[in-house]
Amino acid sequence: MATGKEHWNVTEPWLDLRCSLGEGPFFEAETNSLRFVDIKEKKIHSVSIIQGQSSLRTQQLDICPTVTANLDGVDPRERILVGVKYGLAILDRVTGRYEMLASFNDPHNERLRSNDGAADPRGDFWLGTMTDFGYGEFQPEGSLFRFRGDRKEEVVENLNIPNSVGWSPDKATMYYTHSKAHQIFTLDYDITSGAVSNQRLFYQHPTFGEPDGFRIDTEGNLWTAVFGEGRVLRISPGGDITGEISLPTRNISCVQFAGTELFITSAADDEGDDESKQLGGALFRVDVGMTGLELFEFKLP
């Protein structure tokens, strides 16, 4: 790595779970735990960041969960918001049952599933769609939707894999990733109306890996997983790479802050070297000495 850029080297997993597609890590402050999903296996995991493996709880769904968020005014031990194949659902964590809140399409388009997303400063939820598994190559048929309560709006169209969404510390800038194009975009964000405008390119990844899930720290740096390259990059608000985390498996999918630690999800790797294959789907953690912005909560209609 170039001189002057910070570097962290992670060699061992924190939890060796062998997820097929670990994604969507979310720090649940109320329980000091990390929630994350396994999209392909249709599971939601929760684990105490103090107790580790012994505290792992898993809920099995009959539909793929892709991301979770807290609900405004609701104890997350009782109910949370979940992005699922067809749209947004409310999950009862006590019974394990869920109820659809809003769908992308009616009737459902079986070719598509949700991907990553996040609540915005107003309490709306942004959620991307993409070609589901089993339908061949990913096509530019995905979109980035905004859900305001149970109402939806298609904001950005013709995307292959829309990914993480986040906001700058001053809440004036919104970021989202277009993974297959190796790009991260910014838009001006109006916190009063929730409107976005002036989309422009923030970062173009120069190599074969795909920018995947990201989080933003309190200084405005964007920490993005790079799927296929076994690393996480820290990108400054000006678009410069200022730090890198190296990991022992290639398919790094997303990150989440808890204090100054960064928790990192990954996916299975069937084509890498022996170590990458063995550790694909594991969960990693590393202290990077910086804290992340808290994620926003979704406001129910």
TrEMBL record:
The family database entries (Pfam families) matched by this protein are listed as: SGL
**The SMP-30/Gluconolactonase/LRE-like region domain covers which part of the protein?**
21-267
Write out the entry's keywords from A to Z.
Metal-binding, Zinc
Cofactor comment in the record?
Answer: Binds 1 divalent metal cation per subunit.
Q: Which domain of life is it from?
A: Eukaryota
Q: Which residues form a coiled coil?
A: none
Q: Which residues form the active site?
A: D212 (proton donor/acceptor)
Gene3D superfamilies, sorted: TolB, C-terminal domain
Q: Which residues bind a divalent metal cation?
A: E23, N163, D212
Protein known as:
SMP-30/Gluconolaconase/LRE-like region
Phylogenetic placement of the source organism: Eukaryota, Fungi, Dikarya, Ascomycota, Pezizomycotina
